[in-house]
Amino acid sequence: MNKTESSSSDAQHEPNYRIGAVATLSGVPVTTLRVWEIRYGAFSPAKSAGQHRLYSQADAVKAGQLKLLCDAGHGISAIANLDTVSLSRLLAQQNATANVQQSYGGHKVAMAVVDSAIASRITSPHFTLRFLTRSIQVTDVFEDLAQAALADFSDQPKILLIKVNTLNDSAREQVEALVVRYPSLQTIVVYSYGQLVAVEALKMLGVLVRREPMSDYELSDLISSVLLVDASTSVGGLGTTVLIPARKYSDATLARVAGISSSILCECPRHVAELIGQLASFEQYSQDCLNNSMEDAHLHAYLRAVSGSARAMFERALEMVAVHEGISLNNEAMSATSPAQG
Q1: Fold of the CATH domain 1-81
Q2: E-assigned strands of the chain?
Q3: What is the DSSP-derived secondary structure letter of residue 215?
Q4: Are the C-beta atoms of residues 92 and 141 closer than 8 Å to each other?
Q5: Residue 272 in contact with residue 280, Cβ under 8 Å?
Q6: Are 30 and 23 spatial neighbours (Cβ–Cβ below 8 Å)?
Q7: CATH of domain 83-212
Q8: Which of 219, 273, 227, 284 is CA-nearest to residue 251?
Q9: DSSP H stretches of helix in 139-188
Q10: 57-71 and 116-123 helices cross at what angle (nearest 10)?
């Protein structure tokens, strides 16, 4: 762990909050917090010079986790002494079980998460029921990038969500190493403070990068922007079951197909190839808008999902046309780590 990560971790445990603030942040009444502390030993607050109890940011996160688990039926006596990492894993397991029980037969998109606090946030019943029900299954939770770098994912996640306090050069290198190690993942990075060079470098790799603070609504949009739009959903709804595949064909391949003489073939290859190029350009443009601006994030997330879904459908159509007309599409396939991927 580098110095920045160490200081960020220390900051999370600094006693800065009085019990009323913890109650506001976690949604747990003050009287309940006192019972959990005195009777069950859930917290060990420091004391101010005036003998007021002072709690840390980690205590506030833990209080919220305990509330979610108690609301789901867990007894406080069984979970009060667990740390935030263990509570995050318990919440993730609970969410996975609930998703299986609620599933109507659709496939779920597996997600690995770096940072237990944001994992708790997206696996909470409030978040999953309101925003991503039946869509995401968190399969791995890592405390930080260093832990993720040393671990093997327990499943085959399609999305990697990373939360860092500071996106500096060291964090960028760790993220890039994970992108190279798992090229099929769609990586999303959320940060609080960052260096412009590091942010832009990750965007060039095709990583979705957004700065905190973000509401649950905005975070859901960001995740949903990499999911296929489900044709069975109502207009304006985002896809719930399948990750948008990476772009398959380069501009050079599309130009070659579009330029094949029409004296023998019909115009379908040219039209389909041109449509794919236009959709891929608009998909990238929408991703840039989503990366660079908090304004209209819901619209840009939806536009990226729609254009990516349409692009993938027309790529399949192009393959059917190519088989019918005897056209080769294998010469200039896109690389898995290309920044042009959807």
Answers
A1: Multidrug-efflux Transporter Regulator; Chain: A; Domain 2 (1.10.1660)
A2: 46-47, 53-54, 109-114, 136-142, 159-167, 186-194, 208-211
A3: -
A4: yes
A5: no
A6: yes
A7: 3.40.50.2300
A8: 273
A9: 145-150, 169-181
A10: 30
Question: Which single residue is written with the structure tokens 């999953």?
Answer: 128
- Give tens-digit pLDDT for 195-233: 899 999 998 888 889 888 888 878 888 887 887 765 444
- Rounded Cα gap, residues 44 and 50, in angstroms: 17
**Sheet holding 109-114: strands in order across?**
136-142, 109-114, 159-167, 186-194, 208-211
Sequence length of the chain is 342
Residue type, 12: Q
Q: What is the pTM of this model?
A: 0.53
Model confidence at 133, in pLDDT bands (50, 70, 90)?
A: very low
| Tokens standing for residue 214 | 């973000």
User: At 324, which amino acid appears?
Assistant: H
- List the beta bridge partners of residue 109: 136
User: Are residues 81 and 44 in contact, defined by beta-carbon separation less than 8 angstroms?
Assistant: no
CA-based end-to-end distance of the chain: 32
